[in-house]
Amino acid sequence: MKKLLIIPALLLALNTSNAQAQEPTKKKKEQTKMELKDPVCHMKVSKDAKIVTTHKDHQYAFCSESCKTRFVDNPEKYVKKD
């Protein structure tokens, strides 16, 4: 009888462990949704970044004023061509 109780307990423990292992993945996806990439240096920038500019009706965020300046001086170098 004790063996029968151990099996469900082990299955429950494995299931809980698996759910906890997946949790960081969910957090990473949530973080990715809340981040942009600086078009000049490719660093991650939050969507509420203070250093931004607009080019051809698209807003770009930057990690620093230096990256923004480089972008403004030559935006076509950093914008993907469709």
List the helices and strands and how they pair.
Blueprint: H1 2-33, E1 35-37, E2 44-46, E3 52-55, E4 58-61, H2 65-73, H3 75-78
Antiparallel strand pairs: 1-2, 3-4
Alpha-carbon distance between the two ends:
67 Å
| Major β-sheet annotation | 2 strands, antiparallel
Strand order across the biggest sheet?
1-2
Q: Would you report the number of β strands?
A: 4
Radius of gyration: 23 Å
List low-confidence stretches: none
* General shape: rod-shaped
Q: Which structural class do you get from the secondary structure elements?
A: alpha+beta
Count of domain modules? 2
The proportion of strand residues reads 15-25%
Order of helices and strands: HEEEEHH
Estimate the mean pLDDT confidence: 78
Organism: Lacihabitans lacunae
Keywords: Signal
InterPro entries: Ferritin-like_SF, RNR-like, TRASH_dom, YHS_dom
Domain TRASH: 38-75
Give an overview in words.
By secondary structure, this protein is α+β, with helices and mostly antiparallel strands. The chain folds into two domains: 33 residues; 49 residues, no CATH class. A hairpin with a 2-residue loop joins strand 3 and strand 4. It contains three helices and four strands. It is rod-shaped, with a radius of gyration of 23 Å. The chain has a two-stranded antiparallel sheet with strand order 1-2. The chain has a two-stranded antiparallel sheet with strand order 3-4. It starts with a helix and ends with a helix.
What keywords describe this structure?
82 residues, alpha+beta, 2 domains, two-stranded antiparallel ribbon, 3 helices, 4 strands, 55% helix, signal, YHS domain-containing protein, TRASH_dom, YHS_dom, Ferritin-like_SF
